[in-house]
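Give me C-alpha coordinates for this 232-residue protein.
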Amino acid sequence: MYERFAHEYAAHAEDNSHNALYDRPAVLGLAGDVAGLAVFDAACGPGLYARELLDRGARVTGCDVSPTFVDLARARCDGRADLRVHDLTEPLTWVPDGSADLVVFALALHYFDDRVTLLEEFRRILRPSGALVLSTEHPTMSWTRLGGSYFTEEPVEESLSPDRDWPIRAWRRPLTSICAEFRAAGFFIDELLEPRPVPEMAERYPDDHAKLELLPAFLAFRLIPAAPPPSR
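Here you go.
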Protein backbone atom coordinates (compact mmCIF):
# COMPACT_ATOMS: atom_id res chain seq x y z
CA MET A 1 0.00 0.00 0.00
CA TYR A 2 2.80 2.41 0.85
CA GLU A 3 4.89 1.94 -2.29
CA ARG A 4 3.17 4.75 -4.23
CA PHE A 5 3.89 7.32 -1.52
CA ALA A 6 6.89 5.72 0.18
CA HIS A 7 9.25 8.71 -0.14
CA GLU A 8 6.61 11.15 1.11
CA TYR A 9 5.74 8.94 4.05
CA ALA A 10 9.38 8.39 5.00
CA ALA A 11 9.99 12.13 5.20
CA HIS A 12 6.75 12.57 7.15
CA ALA A 13 7.42 9.78 9.68
CA GLU A 14 10.98 10.77 10.46
CA ASP A 15 10.05 13.76 12.59
CA ASN A 16 6.27 14.06 12.94
CA SER A 17 4.33 13.99 16.19
CA HIS A 18 2.66 10.56 16.08
CA ASN A 19 5.65 8.60 14.78
CA ALA A 20 8.72 10.30 16.21
CA LEU A 21 7.31 11.53 19.51
CA TYR A 22 4.62 8.98 20.28
CA ASP A 23 4.89 5.52 18.70
CA ARG A 24 8.67 5.12 18.42
CA PRO A 25 9.34 6.07 22.06
CA ALA A 26 6.59 3.66 23.16
CA VAL A 27 7.76 0.72 21.05
CA LEU A 28 11.45 1.21 21.83
CA GLY A 29 10.62 1.60 25.50
CA LEU A 30 8.85 -1.77 25.52
CA ALA A 31 11.78 -3.29 23.64
CA GLY A 32 14.07 -2.33 26.52
CA ASP A 33 17.81 -2.95 26.46
CA VAL A 34 18.55 -4.53 23.06
CA ALA A 35 22.35 -4.46 23.22
CA GLY A 36 23.68 -7.72 21.82
CA LEU A 37 20.21 -9.03 20.89
CA ALA A 38 19.10 -10.43 17.54
CA VAL A 39 16.13 -8.29 16.53
CA PHE A 40 13.79 -8.89 13.59
CA ASP A 41 12.13 -5.68 12.36
CA ALA A 42 8.94 -6.83 10.62
CA ALA A 43 7.41 -4.32 8.18
CA CYS A 44 10.50 -2.21 8.71
CA GLY A 45 9.28 0.70 6.57
CA PRO A 46 11.99 3.29 5.87
CA GLY A 47 14.19 1.95 8.67
CA LEU A 48 13.44 4.42 11.45
CA TYR A 49 13.12 1.73 14.14
CA ALA A 50 15.91 -0.41 12.66
CA ARG A 51 18.40 2.46 12.79
CA GLU A 52 17.56 3.18 16.42
CA LEU A 53 17.84 -0.50 17.34
CA LEU A 54 21.25 -0.69 15.66
CA ASP A 55 22.42 2.41 17.47
CA ARG A 56 21.38 0.74 20.74
CA GLY A 57 23.58 -2.26 19.99
CA ALA A 58 21.19 -4.77 18.41
CA ARG A 59 21.88 -7.05 15.46
CA VAL A 60 19.03 -6.30 13.08
CA THR A 61 17.37 -8.23 10.29
CA GLY A 62 14.02 -7.36 8.82
CA CYS A 63 11.75 -6.96 5.85
CA ASP A 64 9.09 -4.90 4.14
CA VAL A 65 6.88 -5.54 1.15
CA SER A 66 7.78 -2.15 -0.35
CA PRO A 67 11.02 -2.21 -2.38
CA THR A 68 11.31 1.56 -1.96
CA PHE A 69 11.05 1.30 1.81
CA VAL A 70 13.70 -1.42 1.88
CA ASP A 71 16.05 0.71 -0.22
CA LEU A 72 15.49 3.66 2.12
CA ALA A 73 15.97 1.49 5.20
CA ARG A 74 19.20 -0.01 3.91
CA ALA A 75 20.57 3.46 3.22
CA ARG A 76 19.47 4.73 6.63
CA CYS A 77 21.14 1.77 8.33
CA ASP A 78 24.40 2.18 6.38
CA GLY A 79 24.42 -1.48 5.39
CA ARG A 80 24.55 -2.65 9.02
CA ALA A 81 21.22 -4.54 8.85
CA ASP A 82 20.07 -7.48 6.73
CA LEU A 83 16.86 -6.01 5.27
CA ARG A 84 14.92 -7.75 2.51
CA VAL A 85 11.84 -7.28 0.34
CA HIS A 86 9.31 -9.77 1.65
CA ASP A 87 5.52 -10.01 1.81
CA LEU A 88 4.53 -10.96 5.36
CA THR A 89 1.46 -12.79 4.10
CA GLU A 90 4.04 -15.44 3.13
CA PRO A 91 6.17 -17.49 5.57
CA LEU A 92 9.59 -16.18 6.57
CA THR A 93 11.33 -19.18 5.04
CA TRP A 94 14.73 -17.45 5.19
CA VAL A 95 14.52 -16.90 8.96
CA PRO A 96 15.45 -19.95 11.09
CA ASP A 97 13.34 -21.20 13.99
CA GLY A 98 14.22 -19.62 17.32
CA SER A 99 16.74 -17.19 15.85
CA ALA A 100 15.37 -13.88 17.19
CA ASP A 101 15.51 -12.51 20.71
CA LEU A 102 12.99 -9.82 19.79
CA VAL A 103 10.53 -9.10 16.99
CA VAL A 104 9.47 -5.48 16.48
CA PHE A 105 6.27 -4.91 14.51
CA ALA A 106 5.26 -1.25 14.54
CA LEU A 107 1.92 0.05 13.26
CA ALA A 108 1.29 -2.72 10.74
CA LEU A 109 -0.76 -5.50 12.37
CA HIS A 110 -4.07 -3.88 11.42
CA TYR A 111 -3.26 -4.15 7.70
CA PHE A 112 -3.29 -7.96 7.63
CA ASP A 113 -6.31 -10.19 7.12
CA ASP A 114 -4.84 -13.35 8.64
CA ARG A 115 -3.21 -11.90 11.72
CA VAL A 116 -3.08 -15.14 13.72
CA THR A 117 -1.00 -16.95 11.08
CA LEU A 118 1.40 -14.01 10.92
CA LEU A 119 1.75 -13.90 14.70
CA GLU A 120 2.37 -17.65 14.73
CA GLU A 121 5.21 -17.10 12.29
CA PHE A 122 6.72 -14.50 14.61
CA ARG A 123 6.42 -17.00 17.46
CA ARG A 124 8.27 -19.58 15.35
CA ILE A 125 11.29 -17.34 14.78
CA LEU A 126 11.46 -16.23 18.43
CA ARG A 127 13.54 -17.94 21.04
CA PRO A 128 11.44 -19.33 23.93
CA SER A 129 12.77 -16.49 26.09
CA GLY A 130 12.11 -13.85 23.41
CA ALA A 131 9.42 -11.21 23.02
CA LEU A 132 7.29 -9.57 20.36
CA VAL A 133 6.79 -5.81 20.67
CA LEU A 134 4.09 -4.36 18.46
CA SER A 135 1.90 -1.32 18.11
CA THR A 136 -1.41 -0.85 16.36
CA GLU A 137 -4.21 1.69 16.11
CA HIS A 138 -6.14 2.05 19.36
CA PRO A 139 -9.66 0.67 18.84
CA THR A 140 -11.26 3.73 20.40
CA MET A 141 -9.56 5.90 17.79
CA SER A 142 -11.10 4.04 14.87
CA TRP A 143 -14.47 4.03 16.66
CA THR A 144 -14.50 7.80 17.26
CA ARG A 145 -13.33 8.46 13.71
CA LEU A 146 -15.60 6.02 11.88
CA GLY A 147 -18.64 5.82 14.16
CA GLY A 148 -20.99 2.87 14.41
CA SER A 149 -20.52 0.15 16.98
CA TYR A 150 -17.23 -0.10 18.85
CA PHE A 151 -17.48 -3.89 18.41
CA THR A 152 -17.52 -3.78 14.59
CA GLU A 153 -14.85 -5.94 12.91
CA GLU A 154 -14.27 -5.01 9.29
CA PRO A 155 -11.61 -3.73 6.88
CA VAL A 156 -11.87 -0.02 6.12
CA GLU A 157 -10.47 1.85 3.12
CA GLU A 158 -9.44 5.44 3.82
CA SER A 159 -6.46 7.78 3.63
CA LEU A 160 -3.64 7.32 6.12
CA SER A 161 -3.69 11.09 6.58
CA PRO A 162 -6.76 13.31 6.14
CA ASP A 163 -4.55 15.90 4.44
CA ARG A 164 -2.94 13.57 1.87
CA ASP A 165 -3.90 11.09 -0.84
CA TRP A 166 -2.37 8.07 0.92
CA PRO A 167 -4.94 5.27 0.47
CA ILE A 168 -4.75 2.33 2.86
CA ARG A 169 -6.90 -0.63 3.89
CA ALA A 170 -6.90 -1.50 7.59
CA TRP A 171 -9.01 -3.47 10.04
CA ARG A 172 -11.05 -1.94 12.84
CA ARG A 173 -11.74 -4.31 15.71
CA PRO A 174 -12.30 -4.15 19.48
CA LEU A 175 -9.66 -4.80 22.12
CA THR A 176 -11.23 -8.16 22.96
CA SER A 177 -10.58 -9.41 19.43
CA ILE A 178 -7.01 -8.06 19.37
CA CYS A 179 -6.15 -9.90 22.59
CA ALA A 180 -7.92 -13.09 21.48
CA GLU A 181 -5.71 -13.21 18.38
CA PHE A 182 -2.59 -12.99 20.55
CA ARG A 183 -3.76 -15.95 22.61
CA ALA A 184 -4.72 -17.94 19.50
CA ALA A 185 -1.20 -17.43 18.14
CA GLY A 186 0.41 -18.67 21.35
CA PHE A 187 1.32 -15.42 23.10
CA PHE A 188 0.71 -14.00 26.54
CA ILE A 189 0.52 -10.24 27.14
CA ASP A 190 3.50 -9.25 29.26
CA GLU A 191 2.72 -5.53 29.09
CA LEU A 192 0.01 -3.37 27.54
CA LEU A 193 0.77 0.29 27.00
CA GLU A 194 -1.51 3.17 26.04
CA PRO A 195 1.24 5.65 25.16
CA ARG A 196 1.42 9.20 26.41
CA PRO A 197 3.07 11.82 24.21
CA VAL A 198 6.62 12.75 25.17
CA PRO A 199 7.04 16.24 26.67
CA GLU A 200 8.82 17.53 23.56
CA MET A 201 5.55 17.18 21.64
CA ALA A 202 3.93 19.87 23.80
CA GLU A 203 6.51 22.37 22.54
CA ARG A 204 6.66 21.32 18.89
CA TYR A 205 3.12 20.05 18.22
CA PRO A 206 0.91 21.49 20.97
CA ASP A 207 -2.40 20.65 19.27
CA ASP A 208 -1.46 17.00 18.79
CA HIS A 209 -0.13 16.83 22.34
CA ALA A 210 -3.41 18.14 23.73
CA LYS A 211 -5.44 15.61 21.72
CA LEU A 212 -3.27 12.66 22.71
CA GLU A 213 -3.49 13.59 26.37
CA LEU A 214 -7.28 13.15 26.05
CA LEU A 215 -7.53 10.10 23.76
CA PRO A 216 -4.82 7.58 22.80
CA ALA A 217 -4.21 7.05 19.10
CA PHE A 218 -2.16 3.87 19.35
CA LEU A 219 -1.85 0.82 21.57
CA ALA A 220 1.40 -1.07 22.20
CA PHE A 221 2.09 -4.53 23.58
CA ARG A 222 5.00 -6.63 24.75
CA LEU A 223 4.06 -10.26 24.11
CA ILE A 224 5.90 -13.37 25.24
CA PRO A 225 5.55 -16.91 23.88
CA ALA A 226 3.29 -19.14 25.92
CA ALA A 227 4.94 -22.30 27.20
CA PRO A 228 4.10 -25.32 25.06
CA PRO A 229 1.64 -27.76 26.65
CA PRO A 230 3.27 -30.63 28.56
CA SER A 231 3.76 -33.81 26.57
CA ARG A 232 1.45 -36.68 27.45
